[in-house]
Amino acid sequence: MHIIVVGLNYRTAPVEVRERFTFAEQDLPAALQQLKQTKSILEGVIVATCNRTELYAVVDRHHLCGHYIRSFMEKWFALPRQQFTNHLYMYEDDQAIEHLFRVASGLDSMVIGETQILGQVKEAFLTAQKEKATGTLFNMLFKQAITMAKRAHSETSIGEAAVSVSYAAVELGKRIFGNFAKKTVMIIGAGKMSELTGKHLSSNGAERVIVANRTLERAVELADKLGGTPCTMEEAIARLHEADVVISSTGASKYVLLREQVAAAMQRRKSRPLFMIDIAMPRDLDPAIAAVDNVFLYNIDDLEGIVGSNLEQRRRESLKIETMIAIELESFRSWYKTLGVIPLIRALQTKAETIHSETMDSLEKKLPGLDEHEMKVIRKLTKSIVNQMMSDPILRIKEMAGEKHAGEAMDMFVKLFALEQSIEDGRETAQAASKPSQVKEPQAAAESASVQMPAGIAAATP
């Protein structure tokens, strides 16, 4: 098996390409079902944000895995692969695992160290888990990545400097106006990004906030939090001339503001500048708006590098997180190596329990005069002897699983304890349990193949 990630992000693809590869929240369950039914894919998670679309997968074929995932993308987005292959990156095994750790902790974000991505990775994992698209490997890996990312933010000061996409939008506005005193801000959309941006604008002196949303109830809810005024989208277009700053972040599939609507509003502003920033994906604001006089239009790609003064501090802190990632990667390797010995240990324990049970049955027949208390004491003591006898062999085989000749050690372990039949019985039981399902079950597939080591991880074994 191999762990891989295929994706594109703000470094490899401009916004006009990325917006064609977004997954609407309501479409993710269907996408995950289609992904896990793709040939050779045993487990899958889709991480889709405004700055990246990444498909994580556990696959059983090393050489064709990228081809199968590109085929999935080609079918899902109805685009020929020639239009997007050059924008894709693919990491395998150790590199894929390290990439996930970097993404979850914010080290791979446009604004280094931002925390929003952690919640997005967690939500992506939980969605995949709910859709039964994850199994043994990803259940462990994503939980470890999420836990590590939380620890990275609590044990370093990487998040102390106020830097995020929403904060970068505010900093960009300051370059136009100097400050937001006596300025009216219109926020289009009532999601998390809109709320964060609104809070930054309010704390930076915005005098009036107008919150527009397709659903008025959501606009009222956010307006109450920000001390602003709610309105519908139709009302927002009519009041556009009142705004000095427009921040748009909706989940709309089409532009919510067009060039002619902005041009009409600007005629009523008497040459006063209008600052507009589009932090939605796909974009909310018609790019042609930039041609309107005295309108300053920016999209999410324009935010990169805006808050450089705080980024330097974050880069220093990121070195600490890089060390944490290296430790976590080694921890995952160690855990993975033990998967190969789990069937062996289970077989030994099952055999020991059978011998113990048969011995106690024989003892009870040979010594019928023993009362219930005496049998309980004997059963407890003999069970303790069995467990102590197994303790060192189990510990040693776990240790040897990470060594160079792990395969030979496991073979010898099986022969020494005569576990061939027990292992075969366990394999047949697992196969029989999986027969009724025609669709690949990631959990069963991962566990049945767990004695194999991904090439990238195996190569790192000393």
Word description of this protein:
- The structure is a single chain.
- By secondary structure, this protein is α/β, with parallel strands linked by helices.
- About 55% of the residues lie in helices and about 10% in strands.
- The chain has three domains: about 1-160 and about 315-335, Glutamyl-tRNA reductase, N-terminal domain (Beta Polymerase, domain 2), CATH 3.30.460; about 165-305, 3-Layer(aba) Sandwich (Rossmann fold); about 340-450.
- It is built from 18 helices and ten strands.
- Strand 5 (about 185-190), helix 8 (about 190-205) and strand 6 (about 210-215) form a beta-alpha-beta unit.
- InterPro entries: 4pyrrol_synth_GluRdtase, 4pyrrol_synth_GluRdtase_dimer, 4pyrrol_synth_GluRdtase_N, GluRdtase_CS, GluRdtase_dimer_dom_sf, GluRdtase_N_sf, NAD(P)-bd_dom_sf, Shikm_DH/Glu-tRNA_Rdtase.
- Belongs to the glutamyl-tRNA reductase family.
- Catalyzes the NADPH-dependent reduction of glutamyl-tRNA(Glu) to glutamate 1-semialdehyde (GSA).
- It is an enzyme of class 1 (oxidoreductase).
